[in-house]
Amino acid sequence: MRVLASRPAERRLETLPVVAPSSNPAETSTPNRILHVFRAPVGGLFRHVADLARLQAAAGHPVGIVCDSNTGGERAEQALADLAPSLRLGVTRLPMRRNPHLSDLAALRAVARRAEAVGATILHGHGAKGGVYARLAPVYGARVIRAYTPHGGSYNYRPGTMLHRLYMGIEGLLARRTDVFLFESEYVAGRHRSYVGSTGGLRRIVHNGISEAEFEPLARAADPFDLLYVGELREAKGLPFLLDALARLRAAGRPVRLLMVGSGPDAEILKAKAAALGLSEAVAFEPAQAIRPVLARGRIMVVPSLAESLPYVVLEAAAAAQPLVATNVGGIPEIFGTAASELVRPSDPQALTSAIARVLDEDPEICRARFTALSASVKQRFSMHRMGSDVLSGYAAALRALPQVAQARLEPARAGIAESV
């Protein structure tokens, strides 16, 4: 287990929206000591945690992170180093397996020890594995609020199969250890109701939020790719269907090119499929990188996913008024709002081909106006400031729901934590 010391919180905070103090005493009287627990320091889940950590630190709450030590490589190391000024409770990295494993017992004990060492009053688990650790870690002493944000995960994994039923059974048991659910989309909240039921603590929907800077206009790169995909290279993201659609477009006489940015377990399979379809010269693969410069290098973002929760990549592209073709899955309709009728059936290469062709052929001014309107709608509904406030409000509601004696036990624990932690 590695514990990385945090550095003074001096930089980057001035660029962040600060969560306004609440008039509710439960939210303002004593800072929470928040430990975010999750597996992979990469992708949208990590972006969500990093944004929350900065917002919560800016609002005066000591924050720390516990995550996997084997995921993310140098990119994760740098991202965690950038986040360190906001982490008064530090960064703890320990081995975490993606799937259930005996090593989870050691990880649970390590999470518990870290929570006790920093006097955590909030254990906030993200994703299936983080949710297990945050809710089952045997923390002794003061009562700790257990919060959970699913981020899709097991709720989306092969519905109808025996394995999915097993996962939902486990979620039902863990719900009894959950003080507050903070669902990132109405879609996942609905899946929880359907598959798990009403067991457990409070439920809130807290949509992912993005910053004002992400709505700045993009300066399109010279000679952009026609199509762009950004995200994990997994078949579950619908990428075989995107390659099929690209082949169909080119067979119809459209010399379109595709840029695929990301990494994942199916990268080699996808490269082989592109070659088999005769697309080797039409598809460029690049590693994961900052999204805004990448958005400028493509005319149309394509999100062909088979399952999602509330993907940041769609929020980020929509905010930048990037033309988008996306599938009608998960929380994506919540992002599109009144424009959700434009979404495409998943697992349908012909429907995807037709949708891409429509955007390619659309009058540029009409296309620009359509996605500028989507950007304005997203700006109104998916605020990072609101996300931060709503999460803190969820914690406060869970604290208020505790028996008074349990709340009384929190105060001496908080007061006894040395600032040297």
Please sum up the structure shown.
Helices cover 43% and strands 14% of the residues. It is of the alpha/beta class and 421 residues long. The longest helix has 18 residues, at 364-381.
Secondary-structure element sequence?
EHEHEHEHEHEHEHEEHEHEHEHEHHHHH
CATH superfamily of the largest domain: Glycogen Phosphorylase B
Instruction: Kindly provide the radius of gyration, computed on alpha-carbon positions and rounded to a whole number of angstroms.
Output: 22 Å
* Proportion of residues in extended strands: 5-15%
Walkthrough of the structure:
It comes from Methylobacterium planeticum. This is Glycosyltransferase family 4 protein. InterPro entries: Glyco_trans_4-like_N. GO terms for molecular function: glycosyltransferase activity. Residues 42-211 form the Glycosyltransferase subfamily 4-like N-terminal domain. Mean pLDDT is 89; it is low at 5-28 and 412-421. The two termini are 16 Å apart. The protein contains 16 helices and 13 strands. The protein is globular and about 70 Å long. The relative contact order is 0.13. It has an 8-stranded mixed β-sheet with strand order 1-4-3-2-5-6-7-8, sandwiched between helices. Strands 11-10-9-12-13 form a 5-stranded parallel β-sheet, sandwiched between helices. By secondary structure, it is of the alpha/beta class. It has 2 domains: 2-15 and 29-209 and 383-414, Rossmann fold (3-Layer(aba) Sandwich); 213-381, Glycogen Phosphorylase B (Rossmann fold), CATH 3.40.50. The chain has helices at 25-28, 43-58, 73-83, 103-118, 127-136, 162-175, 186-195, 239-251, 267-276, 291-295, 312-319, 332-336, 349-361, 364-381, 384-401, 404-415; strands spanning 2-4, 34-37, 63-68, 91-94, 122-126, 145-149, 180-183, 202-205, 225-230, 258-261, 283-286, 298-303, 324-326. Strand 10, helix 9 and strand 11 form a beta-alpha-beta unit. The longest helix has 18 residues, at 364-381. Helix 2 (43-58) packs across helix 15 and helix 8 (239-251) crosses helix 13.
